[in-house]
Write a structure and sequence with these properties.
By secondary structure, the protein is an alpha+beta fold. The protein is built from 6 helices and 17 strands. Strands 7, 8, 9, 10, 13, 14, 15, 16 and 17 form a 9-stranded mixed sheet that branches. Strands 3-2-5-6 form a 4-stranded antiparallel sheet, with no helix packed on it. The longest helix has 9 residues.
Length: about 240
């Protein structure tokens, strides 16, 4: 299978696509013993011998992991403040992984990690509109008219944010519990929506991505996705 050289290098752990562009342009990459500096170069992942800085590059085994991210854990790949990251909850020795999208530090629940860029794109790019379901605790008693506002859309910071579905689980004077589905995935979308309708979020747990459920994973626990689960996520 022929792929672009920078993609092959990135999947072999040589760095980000941009970093791999620089490796190529600086003459640090060889294909079958010859230096290649053209960014459009394609290689046969099965037969061509690719090296960078004299080291052989081989595509890493693709991994797909579901993690129950606890509250207070960050989704960044690098953190200079010593904060706990989702990656720190996984065992050492795995290939370099990235989170598929993000959950903010105060949110919990289902988080995917992978080293497959195409998989990540299919789940995060707005054009694919993957549904994500959340269990949300908010302050105050809930009124039915608020459902309509969320379904029609709320303007926040110049963006129109809307819920795909809203189900009330229970309500009381001090707290209400909802199940809410969104497809847009804007930054802190649910928190911004709830603040706009006067019900600040107290707890936010992502329980589904597409048809994949958080299930019985406890906070901090993780598992590999099955081939069938990966297929369904790509094809939903």
């Amino acid at each position: 299978m022929f792929v672009r050289l920078q993609r092959f290098l990135a999947e072999a752990g040589a760095g980000s696509r941009r970093a791999c562009d620089r490796l190529i342009q600086e003459g640090r990459v060889t294909v079958n013993g010859r230096i290649v500096v053209a960014l459009g170069t394609k290689v046969d992942a099965g037969t061509d011998r690719v090296e960078f800085d004299g080291r052989p590059a081989a595509a890493e085994r693709k991994l797909y992991i579901a993690l129950h991210k606890p509250r207070g854990v960050h989704c960044t790949s690098h953190d200079t403040h010593g904060r706990r990251r989702a990656l720190d909850l996984l065992p050492t020795g795995l290939p370099r992984l990235y989170t598929v999208g993000r959950l903010d530090a105060d949110s919990e629940g289902l988080l995917l990690l992978t080293n497959d860029g195409s998989f990540s794109l299919r789940l995060t790019h707005p054009r694919y509109k993957r549904p994500k379901k959340y269990r949300v605790h908010v302050a105050g008693a809930w009124g039915a008219e608020t459902n309509t506002r969320l379904l029609n859309g709320i303007v926040s910071e110049g963006e129109r944010l809307r819920a795909d579905s809203v189900t009330l689980v229970r309500t009381g004077r001090e707290v209400s519990e909802l199940v809410l589905t969104i497809r847009e995935g804007r930054k802190r979308q649910i928190r911004r929506m709830m603040a706009a309708v006067g019900h600040p979020v107290q707890r936010l747990v992502r329980v589904e991505i597409g048809h994949l459920k958080l299930g019985n994973l406890k906070p901090g626990q993780w598992r590999y996705l099955t081939d069938e689960e990966v297929h369904h996520l790509l094809c939903d």
